[in-house]
């Protein structure tokens, strides 16, 4: 979700050795074909049978000029067809928000227009909505009324053919309480293959952020969350966020998370902050090898082992930042190429309607406009959604 604090773009990732990384993706694309996946690792790169009726993963062959990316693990739908995420955050503030008091009135508008919003989202070519939820913020929480409203929102999306990713937002509750909350969601929605869970959005990155890049804590908590979810019988995808505002998963090349269902998706986050553009600007000291190389090392090239999506990208990361339109333009176009040619599994844009430049509809503080796309919305549609259809 949007941050109103300093985020050094790819600062952790850029410290990695970049030998073998390239500054641009392959430019030759062909239809990928399935290959027999390796089963030598007990981790989540093992195959998921697409005939089980769940969204899962499959290893495909790439026609790539880069030997390091001959194969990729992609998402497949219950029919065994490749599923590329074209997603958007919806109903923001209804189940979790930056300001529950909602002085702007946007939460009420998002709640009251949810069904028409979902219809418009599906009609634009999106296939997934991401709902933020919480158990640790008033007036939100796991009450019966709250859960009944969440049920209605999930059902409204599913009846329109949309996959739902339920994302547990920045939870300040004790970890045991968060664990029980996520497990209860898994138990509640496990029978619907079109509901995915994200147990922890940008784990431990809530202010003062002292554990935001703590890999040891990340492993401990994410493994516990996966185990709790799977014990309920939930076999659907679990979308995992990484360290440092979910910009870094590079450590997974050395030690995997264990998932008995073999159905994890990595979800990276990206904002331009003070970068002028994505393809050339090294953003001072934060990306000395370039942002493309940092993204590849941190998450984009992990497609050989996991399905990877851009779980969140926004046009505006808060005041005091450049928030360059050129960065957003280039990142979306690069992401579409990454999906088509390198086996990336999609992207989720932030946010369908909100009172800043992240709104995909209308304009800032134009609550009544629920159908017209904003400049950011048109960019997402033209640079990512349509090129990946």
Characterise this structure.
- By secondary structure, the protein is an alpha/beta fold.
- The chain has a single domain, classed as Glycosidases (TIM Barrel).
- Helix content is 27%, strand content 15%.
- It has an 8-stranded parallel β-sheet with strand order 7-6-5-4-11-10-9-8. A 3-stranded antiparallel β-sheet has the order 1-2-3, with no helix packed on it.
- Helix 3 links the parallel strand 5 and strand 6.
- The protein is globular.
- The two termini are 25 Å apart.
Structural domain tally = 1
Write the CATH architecture name: Alpha-Beta Barrel
The fraction of residues assigned to DSSP E strands is: 5-15%
CATH topology: TIM Barrel
Q: Helicity, in percent?
A: 25-40%
Name the overall outline.
globular
State the order of secondary-structure elements, H for helix, E for strand: EEEEHHEHEHEHEHEHEHEH
Q: What is the number of E strands?
A: 11
Strand order of the largest sheet: 7-6-5-4-11-10-9-8
Q: Which whole number gives the mean pLDDT?
A: 84
CATH class: Alpha Beta
Distance between the termini: 25 Å
Using brief descriptors, characterize the structure shown:
389 residues; alpha/beta; TIM Barrel; 8-stranded parallel sheet; 3-stranded antiparallel sheet; 11 strands; globular
Brief write-up:
By secondary structure, the chain is of the alpha/beta class.
Question: Secondary-structure blueprint of this entry?
Answer:
Blueprint: E1 33-34, E2 56-61, E3 71-76, E4 85-89, H1 106-112, H2 114-123, E5 128-133, H3 144-158, E6 163-168, H4 175-189, E7 195-198, H5 215-231, E8 238-240, H6 243-246, E9 264-270, H7 291-298, E10 308-314, H8 325-342, E11 346-350, H9 375-385
Parallel strand pairs: 4-5, 4-11, 5-6, 6-7, 8-9, 9-10, 10-11
Antiparallel strand pairs: 1-2, 2-3
Helix pairs in contact: 4-5, 8-9
């Amino acid at each position: 979700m949007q941050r109103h604090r300093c985020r050094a773009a790819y600062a952790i990732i850029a410290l990695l050795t970049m030998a073998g990384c390239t500054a641009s993706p392959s430019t030759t694309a062909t239809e990928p074909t399935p290959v027999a996946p390796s089963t030598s690792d007990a981790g989540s790169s093992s195959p998921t049978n697409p005939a089980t009726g769940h969204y899962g993963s499959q290893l495909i062959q790439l026609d790539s000029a880069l030997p390091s990316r001959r194969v990729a693990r992609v998402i497949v739908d219950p029919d065994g067809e490749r599923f590329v995420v074209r997603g958007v955050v919806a109903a923001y503030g209804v189940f979790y928000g930056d300001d529950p008091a909602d002085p702007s009135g946007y939460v009420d508008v998002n709640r009251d227009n949810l069904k028409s919003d979902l219809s418009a989202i599906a009609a634009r070519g999106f296939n997934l909505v991401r709902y933020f939820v919480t158990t640790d913020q008033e007036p939100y929480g796991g009450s019966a009324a709250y859960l009944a409203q969440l049920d209605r929102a999930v059902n409204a999306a599913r009846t329109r053919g949309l996959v739902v990713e339920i994302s547990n937002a920045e939870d300040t509750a004790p970890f045991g309480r968060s664990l029980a909350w996520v497990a209860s969601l898994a138990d509640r929605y496990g029978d619907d293959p079109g509901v995915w869970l994200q147990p922890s959005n940008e784990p431990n990155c809530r202010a003062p952020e002292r554990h935001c890049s703590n890999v040891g804590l990340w492993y401990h908590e994410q493994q516990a969350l996966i185990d709790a979810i799977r014990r309920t019988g939930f076999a659907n995808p679990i979308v995992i966020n990484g360290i440092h505002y979910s910009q870094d998963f590079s450590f997974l090349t050395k030690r995997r998370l264990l998932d008995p269902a073999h159905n994890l998706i990595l979800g990276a986050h990206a904002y331009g902050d003070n970068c002028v553009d994505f393809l050339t600007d090294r953003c001072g000291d934060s990306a000395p090898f370039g942002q493309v190389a940092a993204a590849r090392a941190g998450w984009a090239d992990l497609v050989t082992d996991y399905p990877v999506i851009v779980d969140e990208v926004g046009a505006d990361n808060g005041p005091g930042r450049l928030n360059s339109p050129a960065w957003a333009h280039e990142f979306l176009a690069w992401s579409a190429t990454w999906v088509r040619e390198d086996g990336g599994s999609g992207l989720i844009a932030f946010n369908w309607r909100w009172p800043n430049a992240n709104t995909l509809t209308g304009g800032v503080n134009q609550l009544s406009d629920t159908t017209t796309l904003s400049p950011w919305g048109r960019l997402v549609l033209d640079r990512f959604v349509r090129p990946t259809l």
